[in-house]
Amino acid sequence: MSAPHELLEQHLLQPVRRYEPIHNDGAEYIWDVYDEPDYEDPSLQSLRVSSFDKGSLEQGDSELHLDMPAVDEDRWEARQQPPQHGRTRQVQLTSGNWIVDYPVPTPVANAVLPEYREQGAPKEFTHMRYSAVTCDPDDFVLENGWGLRTRYEYERPTDILIALTYYNEDRNLLTRTMHSVMLNIRDMCRKWSKRYPHMDDGHPGWQRVVVSLVFDGIDPCDKEALDVLATMGVYQDGVMKRQVNDKETVAHLFEYTTQVSVDSTPQLVQPSPTSHNNLVPVQMIFCFKQRNAKKINSHRWVFHALGRMLQPDMVVLVDVGTKPDHLALYHLWQAFYHRPTLGGACGEIHAMIRHGMKLFNPLVAAQNFEYKISNILDKPLESLFGYVSVLPGAFSAYRFQAVLGRPLDQYFHGDHTLAQRRGTGEMNIFQKNMFLAEDRILCFELVAKRGERWTLTYIKPSKAETDVPEQPAELISQRRRWLNGSFAASLYALVHFYRFYGSGHSLLRLLFFHLQACYNLFQLVYTWFSLGNLWLTFAIIIQYLPSVLLHGFSDAWLIAFHYVNLVLMWVYAFFLALQFVLALGNRPKSESVAYKLSFGVFGTLGMYTLAISLWMTIRSLSHLAEEKKSTVDIVLSNTTAVLIASLAAMYGLYLLASLLYMDPWHMFTSAPQYFFMAPSFVNVINVYAFCNLHDVSWGTKGSDKIEALPSVQTKAQDQPDMVEEVAMDQGDIDMHFKKVVDRAVAPFHHERKRSEKTTDDSYKTFRTRLVAFWLLSNAILVAVIMNLYTYRPNEKLDDEASEGRDNQEIYFKVILWSTFGLAFFRFVGCVLFWIHHLAVRSRHL
User: Fold this and answer.
1) Burial classification of residue 597, based on how many CB atoms lie within 10 Å of its CB (0-12 exposed, 13-18 middle, 19 or more buried)
2) In which band, very low, low, confident or very high, does the pLDDT at 726 lie, cut at 50, 70 and 90?
3) What's the rounded Cα separation, in Å, for the pair 64 and 748?
């Protein structure tokens, strides 16, 4: 019998029709979904493609070459130029805007099943609409000539707007997110038909869902990801316009409804007339921003441009790279459907561990443990109060009506493109850091919205998988923004707590908010002093070792452990000081070796401390039977009582809660790695975050990729809105499309992007190493001088302290005499030079 997760994977992969090359000598290109198919498996119907470039496939090969090169940037730029051959057509601007329909490749149009063609609009599956948007998202309105064909041409209601935000992720991450979303839409439509049949009244379920994909800039994006979208029919090379009548394009908008997908294998997925598990058509809006303007700006396109035009009931935010699990979107929708006062919700995000293989990386395992504990302890508690402090932008949902007004206004303060309009440039450093955690600001503003009683909650059945940083440098950079932003946003929520009194919440709910505010305040104070508390815990515990655990050992053992612990304390102090040196002057990627070493040192010291703690606990418990006092008295009076309680809280409560939620495996697979990494989360990541509190830069750079795009300019004075364009014939479109498919389904090879060291980085690296050596040498000197006495366990502390003071006085005298000797030596030279000067002067008189 198959395991549950295997059955789930089989369920998710049932509708797949796989792309397999079928080779011949001819140049004919065949992709007809109604041809008699070949089969590689009785349950998986193949797609016939019989023409490929001779350079990429050899006669008789069964697979694409594994060394197929990635998309060349120069070739991509060349493909954006107008075709050299084709028919010239007249294109009329719409209110001065470039909005043009382009035919999609024939295979993409033919892939749509007849039943959906009948439900769709006349040109919905045969043409892709492209709009060169030359305005700000706030100005993307019908009055300015802009529109979305889903809303104004097809007149369809939008219940769910799913927004996928992308920066520079590879095509593998894009396909795993996109295909999972399309599977979720299919399963959601099925659930609607069975449990909520009224959802199909007037419009089929698939027409009530819109997926918007927002790319944050042409320059940073992976051009192979564009090939995936072109394979789906959502994008085409050579149609984007850099300018329209000297107005620079801000975003390139593509609209198309597709039934074709690409999974992360990568394999092409298309419908079969005989299958009952086909994907449903998905209404796609691809917003390709011309310049990089950060994720918050992408969300402004979602809410202010697309959302305001579509007027959805709920907006789901998903980062590319996050994979919604089976029915994840349905569970989110169901919560909003049954709870009219629900303003926002999030699901359970868990780390991608690839069947446990990634857990061998302690960083991944530690983050997996963090995610699990947060989902088991933190999110449920906050949901009980009705105010989840942060809904993660990687996978969360909001009721569109709830976020309109002040919540979105405050949320978009962090968008640098609104600097002049909103005064962002004049904000102080605290405010700028606060708006780095704009998702926390949105949550607070939504719950505290004047006159309303919106709540936030956590939906555990809704799960999503996300990729987590696997290198210390990546993790440090990620957490800097999280920690600084959350710290400032937490203070913002506490300072503006009074705004809850103006909301429409009941007295009981306000009481919950007061309890939650006290809890958050305590957490904030605890976090603030975590650096000192961790040092005190380490120092006190290892000082207990000789006096408590080694009682009865020989003097040699006591002396050895004393000096070992002394060295460990100074090692701890040195590496802690080193974090400030690294954080104040270097990028994490330029000092990855130093950070890896720091993680290892703090992890080792932490495990040493934990071992001593466990030893002390066992020794303390073993003596309970020998004591005449009651157990309660022993625990209350014993110095290890706090240690026992902390260990029980650290592991015992975590285990009980995990068992309660029937999700305990992380306690065995990830807890040891988390405890190893925990000291570094405080001593390394917190130090870096606070030392870089000033880092709130938003700057963007110019792009050669943008300059490669053609412009549109009206020339005829008698027809000011007419533009001539060279259009590709359908045959040319299909021939170009076969190359796109080749690239989209080529075997994927992940190449880690290396960060080149700049000259400035090299200078900082030299400075860092010099300062680190200087710090180390001085630390060794201080350690030696401060402990210039011979440790003898049987002598009194006063005698040892007296001996230490005598030795320190001797060293002090040495320092004084050395200083005097250096000064006297310089003085002798000065006198001799003066004598020599007088002698020479008298000779010349």
Assistant:
1) middle
2) confident
3) 11
The CA–CA distances, whole Å, from 509 to 71, 381, 514 equal 55, 14, 9
- Triad 62, 63, 69: Cα angle to 5°: 150
* Residue 645 backbone dihedrals phi, psi, to 5 degrees: -65, -40
Which amino acid makes up residue 472? P
The confidence score (pLDDT) of residue 272 equals: 87
Question: What is the residue whose two structure tokens read 């000291």?
Answer: 679
Please report the beta strands in 594-728, taking only residues with DSSP state E, as ranges in sequence order.
722-727
H or E element in which residue 253 lies: strand 251-258
**pLDDT, averaged across the chain:** 77
| The predicted structure's pLDDT at residue 287 | 96
Per residue in 278-320, pLDDT (tens digit) is 999 999 999 999 998 888 899 999 999 999 999 999 999 999 9
**How do beta strands 268-269 and 261-262 pair?**
antiparallel
| Confidence tier at 552 by pLDDT (50, 70, 90) | low
| Burial class for 37, CB neighbours closer than 10 Å (0-12, 13-18, 19+) | middle
Q: What is the dihedral of CA 695, 700, 704, 708, to 10 degrees?
A: 150
Q: Which residues of 179-188 are buried (b: 16+ CB within 10 A; e: fewer)?
A: bbbbbbbbbb
Element (H, E) at 160: strand 160-166
List, for residues 338-367, the tens digit of each pLDDT value. Answer: 999 999 999 999 998 888 888 999 999 999
- What is Dmax (Cα atoms) for the chain? 119
Going 258 to 259 to 264 to 267, the CA torsion angle's sign is negative
Query: Cα(15)–Cα(157) distance, rounded to whole angstroms?
Result: 27
Task: Tell me the C-alpha distance between 367 and 707, whole Å.
Answer: 41
Q: Which amino acid is at 253?
A: L
Locus of tokens 């102080």? 428
Cα separation, 564 vs 562, in Å, equals: 6
* Buried/exposed code over 537-558 (b: 16+ C-beta within 10 A; e: otherwise): bbbebbebbbebebeeeeeeeb
Question: Residue 478 is which amino acid?
Answer: Q
Q: b/e string for 136-162 if b means 16 or more Cβ within 10 A?
A: bbeebeeeeebbbbbbeeeebebbbbb
CA distance 740 to 137: 31
Residue 820 CB coordination number (10 Å)? 11
What radius of gyration do the chain's Cα atoms show?
33
> The tokens of 578 are what?
């080193």
For 244, the 3-state DSSP assignment is: strand
Count of Cβ atoms closer than 10 Å to residue 417 Cβ: 21
Q: Is the dihedral of CA 266, 269, 274, 276 positive or negative?
A: positive
What angle in degrees, to the nearest 10, is found between the helix axes of 759-786 and 797-843? Answer: 120
- Position 352: which residue type? M
The answer, yes or no, to whether the previous bond of 114 is cis (omega within 30 of 0) is no
Q: CA-to-CA distance for 458 and 664, rounded, in angstroms?
A: 19
For residue 232, how many C-alpha atoms fall within 13 Å in the half-sphere facing its CB?
31
Tell me the C-alpha distance between 8 and 161, whole Å: 26
Which among 471, 764, 753, 770 has a CA at the least distance from the CA of 596?
471
Say if strands 44-49 and 18-21 run parallel, antiparallel, or are unpaired: parallel
Sorted by where each begins, the domain ranges of the chain are: 529-698+757-786, 791-845
State both tokens at 305. Answer: 């441009």
Four-CA torsion 733, 734, 739, 745, nearest 10 degrees: 120
Q: Which amino acid is at 202?
A: G
Query: Phi and psi (nearest 5°) for 452?
Result: -115, 165
